[in-house]
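User: Before I run my own analysis I want an independent prediction to cross-check against. Here's the chain; please return only the structure tokens and, at the end, one sentence I can use as a sanity check.
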Amino acid sequence: MFSYFRELLSPTGIDICAEARFTSPTATNLIVARSSCLQIYNVVEDELVDRPPGEAKKGARLELVGDFQLMGTITSMAPVRVPTTAQQAGMDSLLLSFKDAKMSLVEYSRATQSIVSVSMHYYEREELQRDVMVDRGTPEIRVDPQSRCAALRFYSDRFAILPFKQEQTELDESNKHPFHPSFVFHASSIDAKVKNVIDFTFLHDYFEPTLAILYETAQTWTGRLAARRDTRSLVVVSLDLIRKSSPVLFQVDELPYNCDRLFPIPSPVGGLLVACPNALIHVDQTSTPGVVCAVNRFYGMELSLPPPPPAESLGPSVKRDNALYKDAVVTNYRSLGLSLEGCQIVMINPDNLLLILRTGELLLIELIGHDEVGSGWKRRRSGVKLFRVVRLGLRSVTPFCSCRLGGGGGFFSGAVRTGVLSKELGGNSSSIGVPYSPGALSSFYVFIGSRAADSVLLQVSEQDGALKVQIEKASRIEEASIAQHDDDDDDLYGESATAVKVAAVSQDTAALRFRICDWILTTAPIRDMVVGEPAKYSEYEAITDPMRHNLEIVACAGDGAFGSLAVLARSVRAKILTSVHIPDIRDIWSIRAVDGQSSSDDEFHNFLIISKDFGTMVLRTGEELQEIQSPDFFTTGPTVMVGVVSGDSLIVQVHPNGVLVLNPDGKKLKETPIGDDNCWVVSAAIADPFLMLLLNTGNIIVMKMNTSTRNFSIVKQLEDRGISAACLFKDTDNSFPQRQKSSFNRRNGSLPRSPDGEVPSNGVRKRKSDAMDDGDDLYGEEDASGGDQMVADSPPPAVKDTNGLYETGPKYLCFAFHEDGRLEILTMPDMETVYSVPHFDYIPQILQDVSQKGPPSQVKPGVDISEILAVRLGSSEKDSDVYLLARTETGDLFIYKSFILNEDLAAGSGRDPGRLAMRFVKVPHSEITREAKRYAETDLDKLQPLPEPPKKGVFIKRHYFKPFSSVGTVAQGGSFGSGMQYTGVFVTGTKPCWVMVALSGPVMQSLDRIDGVPEPAGVRVDDPPTVRGKRCVRIHPASVDGEAIAFAELHNINIPNGFVSVTSNGQLNLCQLLWQFNYDFSWPVCKVPLKRTPHKLSYHYETETYVLAASTPVPFLLAKAQQASALAAGVIEEGEELEIVKEKAKEDRTGLYFPSVAAFNLELISPVTWETIDKYTLGEYEHVLACEAVLLQSKENTSGRKLFLAVGTGFCRGEDLTTRGRLLLFDIKSVNPEIDNPQTCHKLKLLYTAEEKSPISAFCSLNGYLVCAVGTKIIVYSYEDAESLVGIAFLDVCMYVTSLSAVKSVLLVSDIAKSVWFCGFQEDPPQLRLLGKDYYPLRAFAAEFMLDGPSIGLVVGDDEKNMHIMTYAPNAIQSLGGDKLLRRGDIHAGSCIQKLIRLRCLPVGRGKSGEIMPSKQHFCIGGTLDGGICIAVPLSEKLYKRLYILYSRMVNNLQHIGGLNPRGFRQVQCKNKPPTALVASSPPGPKAAVDGTFLFLFLSLPVDQQRDLARGMGSTVDRIIDDLLEVTRGGAYF
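Assistant: Structure tokens:
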């Protein structure tokens, strides 16, 4: 069996984040890695209005610049400044690491708006793998703060050092690389005991690159602390890049056994922090072993453990007098009882840290130095004497990574390149980028990336001298004095040995204000998911094609307080408010016209103009739509176009033989006849005050409105130009500047100054130099005369025109596509060509002006473009972009985005002055908007396409592009969902789609307060701003209703920010976008916050409800669990209490944190409001392990089957207590709803419960029987007489079962270690028999059937992010008579597939008599722990071979980011490979499966490159696109 794999939704959980100047020297970029996806954001600051005094007046937001799919999973990344073309432009490069030992250096090309590879460093050589164990580890990158070198740790204990060249003079003709040859060394070469490397980092402010390595000399764990503890050590080495040596500077031994991370501290404090779950340890060269901040009582508790028996003491000896546990070096905050495991650390100022705990809680930690060294921004170089910890009482999100953006003046300048700080963003509230000044409110931003919640951009503002931290003496900090020491201790610890009380330390610190400014949505991790029908939001049903189905995916996402249900739907579904049948509609327009004296109600649309085949209808919009019989409008024939001019005060109606001008009331003012019987208008476009008419002869007439006469006059006529498509654009902010002769300095990229000496600016800054004085590195002081220099990336909208570079008013441009393939931009009204692309019909990646003299070169024609549209999309002129849309005759959609490159602003070298100096870059997308072709063959060769049916003759050219300015409703005060407004273009046709950009939404949620933690004085949480879009165009299909004939936005009192759509059967629908969904995402998504962790989800299709198993954490007490276990086993009676419970109740638990256990509930949820309408509470320590809707035998229905809910549980009482389980069977009954809540019409009814000796982990139904996984056994139950479950057959698989799936009478079982089992069931006599199994170890997370006619495939997802395809082939010799399942295919998915769902492919068509022909194929859709959605579809052999040949040619002919190999990425990665996989019988890469994610890049290639690939495989471009359409058409449910 052959298969097709594709990521429908890319991973959404954020693994890594970093700050850099990556896309521009003046930009602050946030770069995030989501598995194999790399996303780049611009961090942009805006003025905030109506803010109270004391708050920051500016707030940042994130704009998505690019989303790049890499052919490898990113394991780490780091920005670096190296002598490349990016460094010459003042930009950073980026180092990326990939499994197993690969490192790539990439940079951003502003000329192509893409990522380009500089070098690829490959360390997977055989000699480096000889001593590698099974676990190869994850490669990690660290970069020296001064960008002198980078270090890659791979294969656990090996290091590759890549030295960078520091000056451009080091580059020569023989070696143009920006780096010297790398060298590799093993950690043991530093010292024989250096092994088991845990973490490493570079330190700041050393003359040579200095590397700190945390390692473990002898491995241990918590259960062996009595015999072996303090096993981790720290060694600091200096890297000699010339001699390739690493001398040791100093080392610290006997660090706590659970130290796991290093965090370097920039000057003036210096040194580094060693983090462990129980403490923070500051270490530097002058204070070893270090200074400790203990945050719970577990720190040092191992000292009280009794000595172990002699047999347990073998190995390295353990010293009992570790100096790190002495009170002299420990700041005692044990009473806090916090855990630092998984926390993130961010610098606030030179000696203050912000800690984000794993729970999201925020802590403020101050590194207090010795006497008279200052604090905060006045801190001078010194070590650390003790710590101060303050709980802020605030909770953000569960962190997985973090980075700081902006602020800080000259401090930490050496850390800028490592992503710690950026100087241009944040800063003083009155002047962005101004260095810190005492008493001023300065701001910076912290990005908190998460895999279990939405990532947030947090603004932190501080004000010196406003916050006095009052440390509580009794409840928070032990009053332990630091004892006097002898002279040796004084020499070691300095003045810290003086007897002082920690609780008595009180010092001014900075006042802090927090504000959430923006967020990035995530749907990770998907623990479980189901497919169900969408809720009915209105009484009008969307009329869909009977061959389609409308489904949505509901997934369990998030964790803890950030748990949610994620509702995913690929197509945009609208809420239909009213539906009317009007036949023969051709087009529709909505008109908003005002007379200058209108009230606020006049912002609504006035008229709705409907063009029909033989007439025009005019509807007045108000409380209801009313048709008016106006003699002023043209109604006797079809209408070409309707619009407004003169500031929306005049209505223009264009019909084939004239132009009408009407007032806002619809009264005709003027009419201008056009053409005759042989010449008429087929298309028109308006850009106030110009009107362009395209005639059937290809001629163009340009008209201009005279405001005094209120009439159009012809200003220009173009004849014999061969123009087939045209549009107008009004440039109001100089988005399309013109080139000048010598006003642009091409060497430094600066713009000319205005007469007053100022450089025009768009509000961004550029550093004058990256190099800073040593004094600036230490103290952050900067001469006022040497401050930042303002440089513009793009011209401003209005600047005094001294040398012709800038315009004082708007420009009017005409985009014209010629029949010979040229695209021209002409100025209006003189219609002079100022921009020309000779072969636009080849859809190149970059559109660039070519000053061509004479006719274009003769080449084979490209695609046939039928319509173009230039439109500005965004919230304002400042925050918007110009897009160029093109549609072909076959329905393909292409989108381009304009950008300005400073080098293009200067004339010369082929650039004529006066021409437009901008470029367009193609926006990639994967939507196939064309219809599939029909072929004469029945064997799927697709060699003889059937001729297209003759098209109906058209009198008027149809406009498929329908721009809209504001669609969408903002819901204020809703329980979930945000609702946003969008601008964009609706593309009509057989496969309509939305091209939209989000504008704004409601106010975002603020930080949560933590109950029981008092708010410190001086800490405030400011109100967040409104939600803003990511300034990124989103393409969503709208194929739920089938073909869309016409579209128009409609805003009136009954349909605010709605729209009108017309279907192919003449149904006119008045609609609104669902406010519950967020469309500024890869898929339309609705996140329903639960404030608890969702685990299992099931869809009950008979009642159209969902059943959710969710949990909330409660403390786990072993004594209490033992009490419950003894009671369940009958050891004690009800009311009795064990002695251990009484003893544990007397213990002092201050400063201790306990593990938590989940308390589960079953919830019945309505998909209309997503509220819980019924609940069933499970027992204490009872976990829901399985929850499925199963179809069982029942006499209640005439069909003999009924849908029940089966729930399997297990009792988790600790590892030393036996786990038991329960089986519960529910029915969902219909009841009378509550008066005020009609959704409460269903209730859960418990029908049957049974105690089991083992946990119940999986369910499925098989021919009306219930198949249940009870411990290591598979039991088949019969639900007899609707009263009890009776076991009739069983099978022992000897392993914990993870999933069950059945088709007819066969059963698929997957377990946690031994792979999968294929079983058969017979009813008479009842017997469950093993047919075949996989004999190679495999940790299966999910398994499901995939069917292709009579062929059965077994799809399995494992823990190593692979997907395997197995088959049961008893006739094959290799299967040993069927006992062994054969692995027919496999592919590396890149993410762990947690759940697989099988669906039948959509019908393939209709028979001769019109009956629907169901498909014989079943595909699988999967949810991953990274928050992505993937699909696996069976392929025929012929289709697979064609796609595989295309895949091979694309791998060999395309350039891949980072120099990665798509084959290597998709090759299965297994620690225990079966013997068949060790035989090199085929090239590397996926086996019997094709990577659809990579294949769909074919759609974004230029036409000439597509033709080359198709020609090399003996095919055509249309045939290849039709193959891609075929594999996606069957799964287009969503």
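Sanity check: The chain is about 5% helix and 40% strand.
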